[in-house]
Amino acid sequence: MMRYSTGLWCLLGLFQLAFSQNSPGLLEGELKVWHSLTLTFEGPQTHEGASPNPFTDYRLQVRFVHADTTYSVPGYYAADGQAAESSASSGNKWRVHFTPDRPGVWTYEVSFRQGHQVAVNPSPQAGTPLAFDGASGSFTIGPSDKQAPDFRALGRLQYTGGHYLKFAATGEYYIKGGSDSPENFLGYYEFDNTRDHGGNPNALHTNQSYESQGVSYAYHNDGLHHYDPHLQDWQPGDPSWQGDKGKRIIGAINYLASEGVNVQYMLTNNVEGDGREV
C-alpha cells in the first residue's frame, strides 16, 4: 500500500453511504470524525466555458450545523462527477466536501444561487435561487477508527497562539520537515489541460538526458514534470486514474514519505508566476 506522506492523501477512498432518507443529493464517505464527506447534487446542465459560467455565475454554499457549531462550506461545479476518469468538461453535478470534527448528528442546509459574478459576492441574497436551493438533510457521525500517523486519527491542524501548530484531536504539536521545491509540483503532464505557458527556462526545457540510481532518463522538453524515476515508487492500491495515469506523481510522494518528509510545499496557482504551468 501507499506510504502516505502524512495527511496529503488521507481523504481518498470514499464509500457511498445512506443517510437521511428525505435529503437530496448523494453523500459519500465514511461517517466518522475527521473523515472527508462528499455531497453531490444534480443541478443545471452546463459546461466549463458556458455563459453564465459555472465557476463565477453560480454559487453553492452549504451550512453544516452540530449543536452550537456551524460551518459554511463553499461548493463547486464538478462537471459529470467523474472528470478524473472521463476528462469531462460538461455535466450537471455540483459538489461540496466537508470534514466533521465531532461525533453526533449533523444537519445541513443548501444555498444555490445564480447571478453575474455571484461566486465572489459576499451577500447571502445575491443572485437568484434555483434548482436544489433550500435542500436540507442530516447524518450521524461516529468516532474514527484510524491510527496515527493518519491525520484522521489526529484531527486538523490548529493555530493556538504558539510557534507550532497542534492537532485538534490529540493536542500534539506538529513539527514540519519537508521539501521546499519544486513549487510547481502540480505542473504534471498527466493532469488534464496542464501545459507550460512560457515560464522561465529550467531543467525541464532541455534535450539532455539525466541519470538517477544508474538508470538513464530522457527529458521530455515540454516544460512539465514527469517524475519518471518515481514510477517504481508507486505501489498496488495507490491512487491512479484513467488506467496508469498518476503513478509517477504518486510515486514521488511515496518517495518523499519514505525519506521521513511530513510536509510538501507547492503552489496551486503559479500560472502568473515564473513557472507558469499550474
Descriptors for this entry?
Immunoglobulin-like, 3 helices, disordered N terminus
Question: What does the secondary structure layout of this molecule look like, with pairings?
Answer:
Elements: E1 26-28, E2 37-47, E3 58-66, E4 69-74, E5 76-77, H1 83-86, E6 90-98, E7 104-114, E8 128-129, E9 136-141, H2 151-154, E10 157-158, E11 165-167, E12 173-174, E13 178-179, E14 209-212, E15 215-218, H3 247-258, E16 263-264
Parallel strand pairs: 13-16
Antiparallel strand pairs: 1-2, 2-6, 3-4, 3-7, 5-6, 7-8, 7-9, 10-11, 11-12, 14-15
Outline: globular
Content-based structural category: mainly beta
Poorly predicted regions = 1-22
Q: CATH class of the largest domain, anyone?
A: Mainly Beta
Question: How many domains make up the 3D coordinates?
Answer: 2
Number of helices: 3
What is the CATH third-level topology name of the largest domain?
Answer: Immunoglobulin-like
Provide the β-strand percentage band: 25-35%
Overall mean confidence score, pLDDT? 88
N- to C-terminal distance = 28 Å
Largest sheet: 5 strands, antiparallel
Number of strand segments: 16
Q: Please identify which CATH superfamily of the largest domain we are dealing with.
A: Immunoglobulins
Helix content: under 10%
Q: Tell me what the CATH architecture of the largest domain is.
A: Sandwich
Short description:
The protein is mainly beta and about 280 residues long. It has helices spanning about 85, 150-155, 245-260, and strands at about 25-30, 35-45, 60-65, 70-75, 75, 90-100, 105-115, 130, 135-140, 155-160, 165, 175, 180, 210, 215-220, 265. Mean pLDDT is about 90; it is low at about 1-20.
